[in-house]
């Protein structure tokens, strides 16, 4: 039996409860226009946080996520170190980004709009994420009940005081989050 066959596809069948981010299977990716030539991407890893979820009362969903900014990884190690520096993310002063949910509104059978507050680089602004339910079930490898979501959103980096190389490097940042959460018994 394949691992995919273990996952339910009906969001209403997800077990209610409190979940922890599975840091080994969760990532936050970003993409930004690079000098008008290409969309350059990278990822953050080692994400932590909690999700309180009840599919019968989605409006009561709570999500709190912490992203260690120094975990940034792009195709260039030299750029990774530059992005950690004071001209960009300044990870010595601003080690983490956090997202805290405010509200969730179901928009389809397996989709929702999640509104929250993103704190990045010492500045907090509202952020809206479009969330898509991927699946849920018992992970056949570790036997933990797991639920997964994909989310996308956009932000302006200048709103967070990250203005290096504007406008050569785009201001609009596209986020893509692949999140796996393990139920806590």
TrEMBL record:
Task: Tell me the Gene3D superfamilies matching this sequence.
Answer: Lipid/polyisoprenoid-binding, YceI-like
Q: Which SMART domains match?
A: YceI (SM00867)
Q: InterPro entries, alphabetically?
A: Lipid/polyisoprenoid-bd_YceI, TTHA0802/YceI-like_sf
Which residues belong to any copy of the Lipid/polyisoprenoid-binding YceI-like domain? 18-182
User: Please, which domain of life does this record's source organism belong to?
Assistant: Bacteria
Which PANTHER family does the record match to this protein? PROTEIN YCEI
- State what protein this is by name: Polyisoprenoid-binding protein
Provide the species name: Novacetimonas cocois
């Amino acid at each position: 039996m394949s691992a995919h066959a273990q996952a339910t596809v009906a969001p209403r069948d997800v077990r209610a409860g409190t979940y922890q981010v599975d840091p080994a299977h969760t990532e936050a990716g970003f993409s930004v226009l690079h000098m008008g030539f290409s969309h350059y991407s990278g990822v953050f890893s080692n994400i932590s946080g909690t999700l309180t979820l009840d599919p019968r009362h989605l409006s009561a969903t709570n999500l709190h996520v912490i992203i260690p900014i120094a975990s940034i990884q792009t195709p260039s190690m030299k750029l990774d170190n530059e992005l950690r520096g004071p001209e960009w993310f300044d990870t010595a002063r601003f080690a983490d980004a956090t997202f805290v949910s405010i509200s969730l509104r179901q928009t389809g059978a397996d989709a929702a709009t999640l509104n929250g507050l993103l704190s990045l680089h010492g500045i907090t602004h509202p952020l809206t994420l479009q969330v898509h339910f991927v699946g849920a079930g018992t992970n056949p490898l570790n036997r933990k009940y797991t639920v997964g979501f994909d989310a996308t959103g956009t932000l302006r980096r200048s709103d967070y005081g990250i203005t290096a190389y504007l406008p050569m490097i785009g201001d609009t940042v596209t986020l893509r989050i692949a999140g796996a959460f393990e139920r806590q018994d």
